[in-house]
């Protein structure tokens, strides 16, 4: 049984909770979505990872689950305009009928059989009363028992510490597989879990690997990092209390965590020794190397600054950057990572490199999530000559000067802050600090902002910023080109964790979002394809919704 070594009594950012003796409680139900706090999609779009928190102290820990996205997408309703859009044994539900209760779904439905004409097939329609709390037409999908009797959607789950706050995925540099990183408040550690590669067909014999028993269970003690100064670093450091936000470089070699009660940020290094070779050895795991203090109180959001492509291709000297937001300060701090490779032994560290004030609002503080959009820079880099040479190098250096869009979810007042990084003078001379120039009013309680793509009405990928409003039960879809909220996604209670899953090749693909509903413990699946009538609507409920004990 996983036992928490030190349980903080500090309240969770979203709500408040009491303390309990580490020996109390029972094992968490690994197959149940339970107060989801973090969601990640694998780069190959085949896996959905959900981190669950033991928020109400009913169990002695949380869980991390891996879901089969290809299987889940096969169970999603498919939009149609005519029968020709459906398979041979289906028809388009575009007219009122007894089977659809007089309300056409404009989905492909079975032409015959037990569920002929039914939009929800084996899931059944929800009642009007339940629709108030759980949006969408159909009942919930049991990830262990799909309605068609086929393979289960839930692949594997493991137990983790109590009060995880998020989950971050990074691919293994040399393959196979990848790694999940989870800040856990209950024992003030960073958990890590190795995962199977998207395209792997059997060489990696597991879905999740964190030292659990062969028949499943909890991650072992070795996969909790930040609590062993003798092993992890030369500075005698132990991870500070209340780790909350997490961000990492694209390679995953540097990870920065915020501490919501400490005015500090911590650095974990996930280098070659940490990774291992991925087939016979999974390394020693990430190592806590440094903590920087003296920051404003209550740092919350953190985002890695995408590195210009010219840096890696030309071998330029560059310190990766991270932008940090705060609840108690109207500013954004830039923190840079230094690998200190010239020293023997290296002693990596992070340090503040700049600050920019927020002045586009009336009060300008209580900033939560932060996200950066590099799509304009990436498009520029993609247009550069493919052949290596001066022309490509010059083009990439010019592209490095394309600013990044920056979005911040702010609560005082409730608004989406919009800005951009300052134009680079060269690939390495920018300070990467944002300048904010606009503020969009939001409903009460914004808590997170995520950048991702939708498929627009013309079948083209387009970037959007999704701002999650926890208290108001909404997600705003912001169009950065039109500079407006183009759609409000109506959610259930307590939306917080959010991830985008978009793939488009030769005009075919999918565009979905996954919304973790903290209050009622389920994941909502949202359609992000503007070609469908259901764009911006919840089309599936993953997991059985369950209200918190205090509301029963």
Write the layout of secondary structure elements.
Elements: E1 36-41, E2 47-52, E3 62-68, H1 69-74, E4 90-92, E5 108-110, H2 128-133, E6 140-141, E7 154-160, E8 168-171, E9 178-184, E10 189-195, E11 208-209, E12 217-218, E13 224-225, H3 229-232, E14 243-248, E15 254-259, E16 264-269, H4 272-275, E17 287-292, E18 299-304, H5 309-314, E19 321-326, E20 331-338, E21 349-357, E22 365-373, H6 375-382, H7 390-399, E23 405-412, E24 414-421, E25 434-441, E26 446-455, E27 461-469, E28 474-479, E29 484-490, E30 495-505, E31 508-517, E32 522-527, E33 538-542
List the defining traits of the structure above:
mainly beta; five-stranded mixed sheet; 552 residues; disordered N terminus
How does this structure look, described?
The strands form eight sheets. The chain has a five-stranded mixed beta sheet. It is built from seven helices and 33 strands. Helices cover about 10% and strands about 40% of the residues. The longest helix has 10 residues, at about 390-400. The protein has helices spanning about 70-75, 130-135, 230, 270-275, 310-315, 375-380, 390-400, and strands at about 35-40, 45-50, 60-70, 90, 110, 140, 155-160, 170, 180-185, 190-195, 210, 215-220, 225, 245-250, 255-260, 265-270, 285-290, 300-305, 320-325, 330-340, 350-355, 365-375, 405-410, 415-420, 435-440, 445-455, 460-470, 475-480, 485-490, 495-505, 510-515, 520-525, 540. It is mainly β and about 550 residues long.
């Amino acid at each position: 049984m996983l036992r928490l070594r030190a349980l903080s009594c500090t309240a969770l950012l979203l709500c408040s909770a009491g303390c309990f003796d580490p020996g109390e409680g029972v094992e968490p139900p690994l197959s149940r979505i339970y107060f989801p706090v973090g969601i990640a999609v694998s780069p190959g779009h085949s896996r959905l990872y959900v981190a669950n928190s033991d928020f109400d102290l009913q169990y002695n820990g949380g869980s991390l689950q891996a879901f089969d996205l290809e299987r889940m997408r096969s169970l999603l309703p498919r939009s149609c305009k005519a029968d020709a859009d459906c398979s041979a044994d289906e028809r388009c539900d575009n007219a009122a009928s007894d089977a659809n209760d007089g309300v056409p779904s404009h989905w492909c439905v079975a032409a015959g059989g037990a569920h002929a004409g039914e939009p929800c097939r084996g899931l059944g329609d929800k009642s009007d009363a339940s629709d108030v709390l759980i949006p969408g037409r159909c009942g919930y999908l049991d990830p262990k028992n799909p309605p068609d009797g086929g393979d289960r959607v839930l692949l594997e789950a493991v137990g983790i510490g109590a009060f995880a706050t998020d989950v971050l995925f990074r691919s293994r540099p040399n393959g196979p597989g990848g790694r999940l990183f989870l800040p856990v408040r209950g024992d003030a550690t960073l958990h890590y879990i190795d995962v199977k590669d998207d395209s792997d067909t059997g060489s990696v014999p597991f879905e999740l690997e964190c030292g659990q028993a062969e028949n499943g269970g909890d991650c072992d003690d070795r996969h909790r990092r930040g609590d062993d100064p003798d092993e992890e670093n030369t500075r005698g450091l132990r991870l500070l209390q209340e780790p909350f936000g997490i961000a990492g470089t694209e390679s995953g070699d540097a990870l920065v965590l915020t501490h919501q009660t400490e005015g500090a940020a911590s650095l974990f290094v996930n280098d070659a020794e940490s990774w291992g070779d991925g087939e016979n050895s999974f390394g020693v795991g990430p190592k806590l190397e440094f903590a920087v203090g003296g920051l404003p109180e209550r740092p919350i959001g953190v985002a890695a600054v995408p590195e210009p492509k010219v840096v890696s291709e030309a071998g330029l000297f560059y310190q990766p950057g991270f932008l940090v937001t705060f609840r108690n300060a109207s500013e954004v701090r830039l923190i840079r990572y230094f690998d200190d490779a010239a020293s023997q032994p290296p002693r990596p560290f992070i340090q503040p490199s700049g600050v920019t004030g927020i002045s586009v609002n009336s009060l300008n503080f209580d900033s939560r999530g932060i996200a950066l959009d590099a799509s304009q820079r990436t498009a520029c880099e993609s247009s550069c000559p493919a052949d290596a040479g001066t022309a490509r190098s010059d083009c990439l250096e010019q592209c490095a000067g394309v600013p990044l869009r920056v979005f911040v979810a702010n609560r005082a007042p409730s608004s989406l802050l919009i800005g951009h990084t300052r134009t680079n003078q060269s690939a390495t001379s920018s300070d990467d600090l944002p300048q904010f120039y606009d503020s969009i009013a939001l409903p009460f309680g914004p808590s997170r902002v995520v950048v991702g793509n939708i498929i627009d009405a013309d079948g083209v990928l387009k970037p959007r910023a999704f701002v999650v409003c926890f208290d108001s039960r909404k997600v705003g879809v912001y169009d950065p080109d039109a500079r407006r909220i183009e759609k409000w996604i109506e959610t259930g209670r307590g939306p917080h964790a959010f991830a985008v899953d978009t793939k488009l090749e030769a005009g075919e693909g999918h565009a979905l979002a996954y919304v973790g509903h903290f209050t009622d413990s389920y994941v909502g699946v949202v359609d992000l394809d503007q070609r469908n009538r259901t764009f911006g609507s919840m089309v599936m409920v993953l997991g059985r919704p369950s209200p918190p004990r205090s509301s029963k």
